[in-house]
Amino acid sequence: MHRPATWPRRPRNRKFQVTSMATAVLETGERETYLNREYGIKSWLLTVDHKRIALLYLMGITFFFFIGGFFALLIRLELLTPAGDLVQADTYNKLFTMHGQVMVFFFLIPAVPAVLGNFLIPIMIGAKDLAFPRINLLSWYLYIIGGILMVYTILAGGVDTGWTFYTPLSTEFLKTNVTTAALAVFVSGFSSILTGLNFIVTTHRMRAPGMTWNRLPLFVWAHYATSIIQVLGTPVVAIAIVLVALERLFHLGIFNPTLGGDPLLFQHLFWFYSHPAVYIMILPGMGIISEIVCCFSRKRVFGYKAMAIALLGIAVVGFLVWAHHMFVAGISLYAALIFSFLSYFVAVPSAIKVFNWTSTMYKGSISYQTPMLYAFGFIGLFTMGGLTGLFLACLGVDVHVTDTYFVVAHFHYIMVGGMVMAYLGGMHFWWPKISGRLYPEGWGRLAALLVFVGFNLTFFPQFILGYMGMPRRYWDYSHSPEFQILNVLSTAGATILAVGYLLPMIYFLWSMRYGKPAPDNPWNAAGLEWTIPSPPTTFNFEEQPVVTWEAYNYDELDQRREEVPVAH
Amino acid sequence: MHTSPPATVEGEAHENPALLHHFATEEQQKNAASLGMWLFLITEIMFFGGMFCAYLVYRYAYFGDFAAASSSLDLKLGTINTIVLIGSSLTVAMAIRCAQVGKQKAIVGYLVLTIILGVAFLGIKAIEYKQKFDEHHVPGLANFHLEGHVPRHADVPVNQNHAQIYFSLYFAMTGMHALHMIIGVGLFAYLTYKAYKGRYGPGYYTPLENGGLYWHFVDIVWIYLFPLLYLIDRHP
Lengths: 568, 236
Description:
In chain A, about 65% of the residues lie in helices and about 0% in strands. With about 575 residues, chain A is mainly α. In chain B, helix 4 runs antiparallel to helix 5.
């Protein structure tokens, strides 16, 4: 690694605490881990171990990811031709509604916090478990109950409100399963609230000696900021959805304009949560990217404090921008001006993050393992998604592209290009720790490449489509067949994307049996999670770790390992 | 018990069986539990906040109709209920105090008293609901009708749709509040059982304290609900 002579050196006495690993050995001769300590379905369904609960979530989340993806594929197939020939209009409405609801509420929101956050936060701060292990299990059960309600909704004929449940469409006019879908979202919302609450208390109260706030990995900071949004925002959408259900069941008029109600009130309540919810989806991804970029650049993150403050800044300012979803809904022009300004403002902390990742890589010793490929993808695609978000924050442009494919492309660049990329990057980065096995690196890189290419081919044409004026949520565009070529490109990209998503699932499963056993620290990464065995024991640490080093002390780490050559 | 030094070695016998394995000290566990409870109460504020927001919007838009509808509520029962509820907050506080000073039997007594007051509140609320049902003031039903006119405007009859919105919010807010009361009564039944078993004393009363926080919160919600729903533009 190229190191300028002027870099300050850290004092040599800051060493890693080496934990003694007098681990228990099972009768079979294997080392005891959280995976093999107990067997049987009961040991999983009644577990309070945060690592096992993370794996339970992983199963649910993977299931819903493929359900939601299946609907997406049907949508893309329908749009392959201008005529509405594969499905009817009503079916199409159900497809994009259920795609949205499944992906948002049952994949994107829980994915990173509930799987990687659950697994890693206690280990990263040197704790044995989350503060409330039983509440953690309860939130998984709530997620599953919500999930069962969602599956019931799908099997009972689906729902076609759009993922936003806008009134009075949802309360007055639709005969589909709106109530069960609302209940599904309501119940899974409580799962999200409890997870956030658990993370906040854990971060405050469970840190190991020496693990000060300034030494927390940014992954933990990101989840802390996310949890604030979950705790403050989710209850509001919960009550809004309860009111929708009550209005539907008892024919009330709270949001019904013919009865004196105000549909805009529902939109305000809904977006008060659902805009911050996009930060619930992206902030944990930003945490993952910070870990990966530092590790594969062998450098401390650039501007640690700015990065942490930016995470909190996004969480706070993100609460004040919701009405930019309602610019054309008839809100006051002055309100729109303020929300437009605030929406620009939230781009500042987001930009700080992108600049600082780039600066972290600058003059770093970069290697191109799979997680880093996903991180590159994230930074590029998130930037695209963020910049097009500025187009939409601008009132004039927003009027032009509202409810077109431009909006669809924009938020998919953030949600799929950003969040799913980060999720996959994180899964690859920590898979050796989670499973104790290495995934096949070559296949990993291939899949990362396929996802990147497939993603851009799917969604870039949608920017152009939207700007040309193709509205979202239309199943038939035979009045303007010139849109077909871009739609064909998009559908072709979606096919590649599907392969890119299936591959990791296959080789992760494969590696659980046939993968090479993972060393404790395959990436020579910093962080407490890499000082314990792979996979960890049930209580994570044999002895209480004492932290005496800063986060991302890669220069120190590499200095200590200078004699040991590292294969990149 | 609460003065015992921090346990440093895992597996060491702890004096307090309530100390869970993943906490190092009792103090850490207590602090975690109270922070968790406060955060939970913040989520509750946001939950009720959505309805208060809706209330404000419509009260501002349809003030006269809201005032007329508000006057149809039974002020006497509402006042009695407010007193009952504040009284139950006092008994909870007394129960916690008894735990702190180690009066084991008094804890149970005060908790039972709290449950009685809570059930009394729910009973009076049920009578009020019954009245509204008999008076055809339940929104969404075909027979909904609110007699009368807007206060101080004898020529302006009450707008039935706007009155229905008032009663929708009335039932949603007091109903959600009553649901919290029912959960609270269940919670206190459990705490009473544990207190009866001698579980709480000066060394350990975190569940009592958290139960008390929850109950006080439900109480405070009512203290806002009462004037907002019962006392709009009322004149003797």
